[in-house]
Amino acid sequence: MIRKRILSLLVCAALLCGVLAGCSTSSGSTAASSSSASASESIPSSTVTADTGKVGPLDAGENSLFSLSDPDDAFAPCLGWGPGVSGCSLKSVIAAASLLKWADGCNMSIQPVSDIKDAYTQWFDSLSADDQQSFADAWPLIKADAETLLTDKDSMTDRIEDAGLDAKELPGCSEENWKALADVIDVLVPASSEY
């Protein structure tokens, strides 16, 4: 009797498994078709495949590692002073160091000139007339100090220390990156009233 019960339980279990298997097959195909539909929706219609046969220009778009960052912080030390202002020799070193750091951080030498012009112009156009003139007056000093930091940093040791900068971290920029930025500013900065 126990054997018959066990046997009948096994038969019922087998039938139940068969019924469930039949149900899961039809619902499984529905699930499979819905998962393949959702998978096809999540996959973009076009994909980009890397072409390792040749190297093209680097992407300098907004989300790129090589994009231009906001210039406001970099240019902040360039404002509010000019030639003849107390401490201008220290302020110009600080401003030069800031622009050198920004130029190197943005890899200016690989940026399209139009992008550098746009970043500079947007920053400059957002300034008050006084700040625009202040920058124009200070630019020759800043540029001269940046170039000296690149070529003869030892001659500026005292000014670097007095400005509170770390000489070991300066110039922190390649000549190519600085030249790419300075060339754009030279063309776009208005004439200084001091020179």
What does this structure look like?
The protein is mostly helical and 195 residues long. The chain is 61% helix and 0% strand. The protein has seven helices and no strands. α3 crosses α5. The longest helix is centred in the N-terminal third of the chain and has 41 residues. It is globular, with a radius of gyration of 33 Å. 24% of the residues are buried. About 19% of the residues have low confidence.
Give me a quick take on this structure:
By secondary structure, this protein is mainly α. 61% of the residues lie in helices and 0% in strands.
Classify the secondary structure makeup into a structural class.
mainly alpha
Seen as an oligomer or otherwise, the chain set is: single chain
Strand content: under 5%
Q: How much is the average pLDDT? A: 77
How much helical structure, as a percent, in the residues? Answer: 55-70%
Low-confidence stretches: 24-40, 46-66
Could you give the count of β-strands? 0
Count, helices = 7
Tell me the distance between the termini: 115 Å
Spatial shape = globular
**SSE topology string:** HHHHHHH
For the sheet with most strands, the description reads: none
| Integer-rounded radius of gyration | 33 Å
How is this fold's topology laid out?
Elements: H1 2-42, H2 72-75, H3 88-105, H4 113-125, H5 129-151, H6 157-162, H7 175-188
Helix pairs in contact: 3-5, 3-7, 4-7
Keywords, separated by commas or semicolons:
single chain, 195 residues, mainly alpha, 7 helices, 0% strand
